[in-house]
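explain this.
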Amino acid sequence: MFENNLVQGNESDNLKASLQKYFGFNAFKGEQELIINNVLIGKNTFVIMPTGGGKSLCYQLPALILKGTAVIVSPLIALMKNQVDAMRHVSNNDQIAHFMNSSLSKGDILKVKQDIQDGKTKMLYVAPESLTKQENIDFLISVNISFFAIDEAHCISEWGHDFRPEYRRLREIFEKISNVPIIALTATATPKVQHDIQKNLNMLDATLFQSSFNRDNLYYEIRPKRDVEKQIIRYIKNHAGKSGIIYCLSRKKVEEISELLQVNDIKALPYHAGLDSTTRAKHQDMFLMEDADVIVATIAFGMGIDKPDVRFVIHHDIPKSIESYYQETGRAGRDGGIGECIAFYSYKDIEKLEKFLQGKPVTELEIGRQLLNEIVSYAETSVCRRKFILHYFGETFDERKCDSQCDNCRNPLEKTEGETNVLNLLKAVEILEETQKAKHYCAFLSGNVNSEIKAYKHNTLKLFGVGKEFDEHYWNAVIRQVYLAGLLTKDVETFGVLKLTQQGKDYIKSPRSFKLVKQHDFSNTDDDDGIIIGSKGGVFDERLYDLLIDLRKSIAKEMGVPPFVVFQEPSLKDMCFQYPVELEELTNIQGVGVGKAQRYGEPFVALIANYVEDNEIERPQDMVVKSLINKSGLKVQLIHNIDRKIPLDDIANSQGKSFNELLDEIESVVASGTRVNINYFINSILDAENQEEIFDYFNNANSDDLITAYRELDGLYTEEELRLVRIRYMSEMAN
């Protein structure tokens, strides 16, 4: 009906009638109509359309209209199931769509093949691995194929964020089966990836349909990874009843976070490849049917999941590329409503991702590093995040149109004049003949004589160290901003070597004012990989801290003990975030147990209560976060083992811990107010005279700091010996 005709007049009406008939829509979105017509008239088609733009319809409607079966290559079993279920809902014929993958039995596969032969099936979703099987190739040769569709086509390119080698063979397999048109679709592709996809599929003649990558209803924010679990719980509680996705890098973290949310009365479920397919499908369906508000997932979740009202996407860990980030955040606000995208960032996460790259082939390693560098640049940038994302995908954007829809535009950092530094950077690129990556220029400008600088003898050049008053982190921020301004470009083929653009060359000849935005500081983040319920709910209260220090000093003087015996500094600092006004609340403070709260707590909570009332302070305590792990059982077992006088190194070995880790636990028990007696172990390694010398030192010291103790005692004792006696001292004097 539509062959050899452009959509116009009656044909356009017919196409809209088909849209209404099958999907119940009265109008197409964006370029959907042009794309569908291009497929219907038998042309190769390449579609780059953001998540939520309606990519699926671009091959589903033509498949329903054309004779034969459309073969749709899809990377995930969960995605196929979701798509097939959706198609069956728009038809009264369950045979209209099938999938063929490893989850099916032989009987199931025979039924699928029979429905295709009988002409009942318009869409067959297949995994690329299934297509490589000769028996499936032979079967598809024997039936009428309308066209091939490749969903998530970025998987074809080794320059993409989710490269899959089996995707590289698709063209060869298609040619064996049938000479029919191809439609390739993706939500994310840089210009380099676009070309790579078309070249590999031998479809450089394809009509390209590229929508803007801008999702103007999404808000982007990067936060330092501090007290992340507490922040997530607070955020979700403040958005009660809203649907959201939390992405984590590891299955273990997915399980921990989902459990943590559940104990805090949030309807959350885990989703990762380690769960059996039945559980995954059940959790996905519960999320879609709103029996769960939050899915905590690895990146496997969400590809093609048609849930329009996801209101937030949180990244517990920063993703490995901007493409991944863009795709995952794109699952928010697909209905055009609000979508908030919050990601937590720390240098430690990047180190972990770099470790994953070790041992990979050189090209893959270099590409992986380049993708990582880009996501680091995005996380650390202090300019408009929307502009940064769109620039990455080859699109220009005026940040004034962001409309405060990113944290950097909503809360802009101060700007300083950077003309001299920008000029020095561009001259450095010129002097080094455009041969180096950003990291090298940062070292060169800051005067860091590392092994590469030395090998190239770049430290002998006149410009070396011209910006030594600034560190490499600062110069990296300058490079990012100069790159965004179009004065530098990155050569993809050489994995990110910086080159001068014509604008950059012009700037060297005629420098002008260049305002540099102050960089973010991500140096202060949590280092622990475990679940930590942090206590820093707000801004640190310096005034209260001074009052607590004075109170501690007077109580210590009255009792004749050093101040740290009453409460250690971390405990006082935690009080300045949490404002405990009752003894029970005091036990939630770091290093304060029931015993210590009862012994010393009354004057402290009284002071804090008066302070809170006088200054009308809103306390974070009003939203209590429950800790995931109840450690009381482990604590009882540890104390029981000590009571039985089992050597501490034996206790550590039996629990699979290092000796230092065991001492950490014992210190935590003692700091919380529980008395333990480890004299039996100390006696086995230190004589009485030495013990008393260390004990007397702590009794007269102003601080319990180990480094100070080591120096004051002339280095006569090891760190372990000092720690053991300090535990004895704190246990006897403080508890």
